[in-house]
């Protein structure tokens, strides 16, 4: 693995030279404005991507495409997926009563089923086809009827197969100029831009890409490490921001927004979205007035994957792996759910502790070394490094929800409930009016984890489908006092679930970038989509309903927002 990473890095660094020299660095205001650079696709990304895909699937060098129906390697890979996932199906159960929720939770526990996702209306559960009769036998008769398979037209094994990048995906765009990197233009209006952002990427590409960003954009990007994994990998992050150097007034703590992904390994869209946001912030500095100001006033720390061991495992062994790779008391059931292992309201001791569970909380709080290291790092930043975390966006998938604290219980309201809801609704609106943005629901994280009666008059809290204590969301909000802490579940709402097609990478990235920019405006006291002062920022022409918001914003424009 290490040699593979080093090889990738050397390829990338070789590639960095022509890209870096293409940027005229003699313009102090816009040090990386390469608007005159030729519009060309760097073949390095294709070569690197193809090489890694070949390495993972042991494809011969001449194999042109994983999707090539004629290839023996394709057939071998397909058989591999069918043997692993072909017997499984994901069922969506519509939940309406407490009895149904309770029975489903108990049955999932008894049968060690993999609960993919759930909200107040439904629960998606992965189950082997031959276990379905046993599952249905444990459920009330109403639930036996109210379920249907996800990905109806698509076999689970095929969906898994399709989620890996194919070398043809890049080759087919070889002469397509829309596929060129966004070095030529500011990418806020564009598509995914850089080829790196068109496919899901393995860690062996993400790590050197981050190094490359830090080496190319030294004015505003630094690579940092926020911890080490159980297997000894670094957990890398990018710190993006420009600190004023000639400010004689002693500055207070540096306001910083933390954006994380990949806590759950199989949620690849969360990792790709962090990278998408990172690239657009990096690439827009010095070109886009609003983003330039934003990076002068705030730091962004972006962690594409908090769980590198699990992420690598999801690429190389099991696409549907969720937890870390840390051993447990049961030899054949490795892994701790990082998002259950924080000490605030950790509930591993009161729930049945089953290391084989997909949401195993560990045998003690912070047993998962990744969570422990990350929390220690964050605490140290605030106590030793003059950092004030003003926002925490923990990206997950799927179900399109913006969730605010608390996760562990609905009976306890956070002190800043109204503020949290207000900003969450703003984020959801920013996403909805984004380019082809989707609808995201705003709710408490406890409700995302607890079925609530569909009879809205009586919001009876139904039994949990899964435990929800010990979350990163609650820990950062309550222990680290990050006032605006959210968990955001990205696309989709169940068509593909974790196996979201790569065509969704850029649109999901775009809508989350718009949410992050809204977040930044909110932090700078400029809530709203467009204000009079930043109309020169290159934002799309607002629709009528956006102008209503602008009017509202302008009235409050000078109001200082207390953080
Ligand atoms: Zn997750």
TrEMBL record:
One of its GO terms (biological process) is proteolysis. It is found in: Secreted; Vacuole. PROSITE patterns: CARBOXYPEPT_ZN_1, PEPTIDASE_M14. Residues 199-523 form the Peptidase M14 domain. The keyword DNA damage does not apply. Residues 165-185 are annotated as: Disordered. Its main location: secreted. Keywords: Cell wall biogenesis/degradation, Disulfide bond, Metal-binding, Secreted, Signal, Vacuole, Zinc. Residues 1-22 form the signal peptide. SUPFAM superfamilies: Zn-dependent exopeptidases (SSF53187). Its cofactor is Zn(2+). GO terms for cellular component: extracellular region; vacuole. CDD domains: M14_CP_A-B_like. One of its GO terms (molecular function) is zinc ion binding. The keyword Signal applies. Pfam families: Peptidase_M14. Belongs to the peptidase M14 family. Inactive carboxypeptidase that may play a role in cell wall organization and biogenesis. This is Inactive metallocarboxypeptidase ECM14. The lineage of its organism: Eukaryota, Fungi, Dikarya, Ascomycota, Pezizomycotina.
